[in-house]
Fold:
Amino acid sequence: MDRRKNPYAPGAGIQPPALAGRDQLLADAQIDMERVLARRPVKSLMLLGLRGVGKTVLLNRMKADADNLDFQTAKIEAPEEGTLPQLLIPELRRILFSLDLIARAGKKLRQAMGALRNFGSAFRVSVGEIEIGMTPTPGVADTGNIEQDMPQLIIALCEAAAERNTAIGLFVDEVQYLSPRELAALVLACHETAQRNLPLFFVGAGLPQIAALAGNAKSYAERLFNYPGIDKLPPEAAREALTAPARKEGAAFESDAVEEILRVTERYPYFIQEWGYHVWNSAPKSPVTKHDVESAYPAIISHLDANFFRVRFDRLTVLQQKYLRAMAELGPGPHKTGDIAATLGVDATSVATVRQQLIDKGMIWSQRHGETAFTVPMFDRFMKRQIKVLEKHVPRRRKPALPRPL
Structure:
């Protein structure tokens, strides 16, 4: 097979050549965006799913669709370290410049620029020069309380967009890494703009725990957002994701080869792209056979271990790695927290902090109280390959305090 014609696109957030199984979700989002432009009410979106299901791909596609509808869009990825204002201010500044180019600055745009200056000053983020000759408006987005200032800033931005008959599209990836106050501020901003029927289309994406985090931040979040779950592909869509790119290049997979790839990838979109990519490169000719798939398996696993799984593993402490290895000993999950601790040889309370650290790092999540599951598909198998034998954890005893001198 000609490697120069390999049609598959494994990678973080890279749109696959056949975006199969997501048509209805994208169509619904398109309708919502058109309703926003018509100043009709819509619910914001929170895309929830494990790693490798294509949340970032969908987020990027929705942003592109919003751009095509002449929205003014901003996209950020929440980092594990850093603040929301640091990421958001440059994007909102760019939008304000774009709005200024549409027509001569009006009242609402001047107010939005003043609000952005205030917001940047309150959170000590450089906004840069805004050559509009305006001074900040006292009392707007200037308190340093993000739950108060963020809604005021977004409202001012949306009012400026409405003044120019356009809308704002705000896209935030990895929402679970926002601090509780930052998430609360975003939820509140979406709530306030919805109450005022302002033109904002918000889409967040991240791990499944976001629904609970948003609900904890503001109780009305469950009514403010739709929470579509992004999961592995249905069988027919998974087949299409694998075979359609090959067909465009005049190649094919034998049916048992297709079924074998769907089995080993568990129909997760990212893994389908990885398997398609490596099997294409190693197969001698078309059609690809089941034997070709099986022959490529060791090299694919080695590649994933080194480039996908291990990146996450290397960020963990030894005890965190042991905790995940204990989870892997029990299988894919979800598992009861007490069972994991017992497998590790300790009491659940003694590793409660470790469990929370792993949740904060996005390695595990809790669907129900007292349960824990991996956020990365197939990570249990990787852990068994990485740590062959599970060693029980022996907590270090604290040294007794020395008596104070008299």
